[in-house]
Amino acid sequence: MDRTTSARDVVNAVKDADFPAGKDDLIDAAKRAGAPQDVVAALRGMPRESYANREEVARSVRVDPDSDLHLSEAQRAEQARKGGRPGQSQHLRDAPKPPVQDELDR
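Structure for DUF2795 domain-containing protein, as requested:
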């Protein structure tokens, strides 16, 4: 890939896909949307399974860990403690906001 593909690029490429969607459905949707080749290649690298929504796609596609998930240090620590799906990179695991962050966001 010539440029860094971000999770946001991938999610934007599949925004018109009907969910739940399989890997091939997502690749087709990205091609129809005119997604760059690096985004299509990132989708091809995902595990072959069904995805319920765009968030699952963003967490399953292999991109630069710091691309655009905007996780705090506490969320990254939570990712390290919790296991994800088999084959899922640590930076893609679910990371809920810590209770303190919820309070600060109110």
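The longest strand covers residues 21-22.
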